[in-house]
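Question (not urgent): is this output format expected?
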Amino acid sequence: MRKYVIIGAQGSGKGTQSLLLARDLDLVHIGVGDIFRWHVQNHTKLGAQVRRAMAAGELVGDDLVEGVVRDRLEQHDWNYGFIIDGFPRSRRQAEFFLESYDIDGVIHLDLPDDEVRRRVLARRLCSECGMDYNLIADRPTQEGRCDVCGGELVTREDDTEEAVTERLRLYRRKTAPILELFGRKEYVVTVDARPGIDAVQRTLRKKLGLPAPR
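Got this back:
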């Protein structure tokens, strides 16, 4: 059984790299952001709280995040392990996680702020099915329309210049220091997230001592 955490600023490719690793190693991918977006789209009480934080470019509160993660992991559907994306985002969350689970590795996707802005501001989301697009590397066949369902592509509510700047500030101040905490236990591998998807995946697997992609 393998258990990994993947950390990086928005737009660094956490979701993409997690899914590639999960597919080949039979891991369960747990995307905390995906869970929150589901609640937002389905207008739940939790979704309303998340939406307010996201719109302001703020990180969701520790208690709320820890509760969501705990509930998800208690489902115990991860027979071969998991890779968790979007958690922890603060030192307190990291301490909670280390107390509860033995981690095999923390993957840190390193991306400069200017590249974060470029990638994030190019993201689009289907208003109907929720399919993600990026106008830099994953453009739809028909401009402004989803290839899957034909729905309108929209900018995420939290993907504005102001919100991106605020989230980056919070990431550097609150989230990045957790790497130091994990690093004391020699868990962390840092990977340059600027190259293409396949190159990043090969590098992180080499650093983790895992087989090359199939």
